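Request: Show me your protein:
***
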Amino acid sequence: MKKKGRVVVTGVTGFLGSYVVPLLLQAGYDVVGIKKKNSNMARLGKIVRHPRFSLHDYEDGVASCFSQPVHAIVHLATNYGRDQASYAEIVVANVVLPLELLELGVKQGSHIFINADTFFHVKLHLSPKETSYITTKKLFLDIAKEIASLHPIKFANLRIEQMYGPRDNEKKFITTMISELLSGKPSLQLTEGIQRRDFVYVEDVARAFVASVQHADALPSFIEFGIGTGKSVGIRDVVLYLKKITKSTAKLAWGAIPYRKHEIMDSKADLKKNALISWRATTKWKKGLQTTVDSFVKK
């Protein structure tokens, strides 16, 4: 396979990163992964030994990642303001690191910077640090728009809907529900469950990032893509289906937990621009949930 250039990727040891890296390698790109020195490498598995994949510790500085031409930068690392994170760590992950990489890409002549964003940019009733996640992501995006308007580098912001799949963080909604349903608990407390979400399988999301790299030259200087199926599914429908396929006997106590303040009641991706990267989600939510449940059973 003909080599297609180097791609610098942050967040390679994370949930999404562990799917994006193999797809980039399969597509013929060399991948330089940026991680923290204390990162857990379990999600990457054997891919760490791939001859076209190298790892670089953020603490050693990121400028050396650009010692050779870099075609694209994919920023997946993020800090949601959870698990004892400091405000400084939130700012570094969501503003300082991507801004440094973007400026290095401008100097290097990189073709595109691709940023991972989320659908819940609407302000919810979050803790101060979680609110800082939204604030810092927006700040970087505003600065990136200005930089992209002044320099040849392209900037693509991928706004991801409700992503799920095997190897996800155990505190995410789908993984939490599966764990609870498999635990044998007699009952589970839930909201009314009438919220609707666009559930998008992680492999589909990973393909969107690779497609953005591959179609970089055809994109405008700044563009945003909605990464989802374009259709929303009721939370209650999803939980009931998970209950069925896990064979759980737990009683579902709908309405036992109140909604968050300013809860988003319906969200789905805007797919109008996605033809530019020839991408669409192909995994149906029931099939994706079954695969995710199967991954729990195999542990």
